[in-house]
């Protein structure tokens, strides 16, 4: 009804039916955003993403609509934030340095990298490290969930963004295997609290507020530990990309 006739009532029905997708994604973003970013702006980006998903979803595709809409809503929020350039370049540069430090130290030490290791490597204090991690919480989320468009205009995660024509090639298969192995090892090496947060967030799909209740910690502390875990995982991906 909506695709064929653009019936307003059908559109309203679909938006209400999948409104929970908006709320879920918005909450996950807002938990990490600085106060300078308004929730109304994020909701506006998310709403555009949901409408885009409704327009472009194919019933005969391989994904459930909720999964597809989740990607579209995330992508719309990320695009909106990028266009507004909410994160200062100085913070972006600090994040890249911290991420690079995790990658270098992990290769050198062959173990989980501590905050002290990173601080010593970069010549910064632990307070400075924590401030950078807190400021860049969403930046790490974007780095992990960054989306690209393939030839069919379907959104896929960056970590799975291997072109279709290479899907059967030995090189693409090897890269995918190396990436999976690197991420598995990186997750296994995470400090216990960070590993637990990653498990609860991405495997059990709990919200950060729910994880805070489970672990008896503040939401801001959970957000900080989550960001550090993502920085470590990003460093594993970075190492594979540089050495492949």
Q: How would you describe this protein?
A:
This protein has 244 residues and is mainly α. It is globular, with a radius of gyration of 19 Å. It contains 13 helices and 2 strands. It has 2 domains: 1-86, Rna Polymerase Sigma Factor, Chain: A (Orthogonal Bundle); 88-244, Winged helix-like DNA-binding domain superfamily/Winged helix DNA-binding domain (Arc Repressor Mutant, subunit A), CATH 1.10.10. The model is unreliable at 143-167 (pLDDT under 50). It has a two-stranded antiparallel sheet. Helix 4 (39-56) packs across helix 5 and helix 10 (170-189) runs antiparallel to helix 13. Strand 1 and strand 2 form a beta hairpin.
What is the CATH superfamily classification of the largest domain?
Answer: Winged helix-like DNA-binding domain superfamily/Winged helix DNA-binding domain
Instruction: Find the CATH topology of the largest domain.
Output: Arc Repressor Mutant, subunit A
Question: Which CATH top level class of the largest domain fits?
Answer: Mainly Alpha
β content, as a range? under 5%
Number of domains: 2
* Main sheet: strands, sense, barrel: 2 strands, antiparallel
Distance between the termini: 48 Å
How many separate helices?
13
Helix fraction, binned, reads: over 70%
Question: Would you report the number of β strands?
Answer: 2
């Amino acid at each position: 009804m909506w695709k064929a006739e653009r019936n307003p009532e059908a559109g309203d029905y679909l938006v209400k039916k999948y409104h929970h997708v908006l709320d879920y994604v918005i909450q996950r973003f807002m938990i990490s955003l600085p106060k300078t970013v308004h929730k109304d702006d994020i909701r506006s980006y998310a709403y555009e993403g949901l409408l885009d998903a409704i327009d472009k979803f194919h019933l005969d595709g391989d994904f459930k609509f909720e999964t597809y809409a989740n990607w579209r809503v995330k992508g719309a929020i990320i695009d909106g934030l990028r266009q507004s350039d909410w994160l200062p370049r100085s913070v972006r540069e600090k994040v890249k340095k911290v991420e690079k430090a995790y990658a270098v130290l992990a290769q050198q030490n062959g173990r989980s990298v501590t905050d002290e290791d990173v601080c010593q490597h970069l010549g910064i204090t632990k307070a400075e490290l924590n401030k950078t991690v807190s400021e860049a919480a969403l930046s790490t989320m974007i780095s992990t969930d960054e989306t690209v468009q393939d030839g069919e205009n379907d959104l896929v995660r960056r970590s799975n963004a291997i072109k279709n024509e290479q899907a059967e090639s030995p090189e693409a298969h090897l890269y995918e295997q190396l990436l999976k192995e690197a991420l598995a090892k990186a997750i296994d090496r995470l400090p216990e609290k960070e590993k637990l947060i990653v498990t609860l967030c991405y495997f059990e799909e709990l919200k950060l507020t729910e994880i805070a209740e489970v672990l008896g910690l503040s939401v801001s502390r959970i957000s900080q530990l989550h960001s550090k875990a993502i920085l470590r995982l990003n460093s594993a991906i970075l190492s594979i990309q540089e050495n492949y």
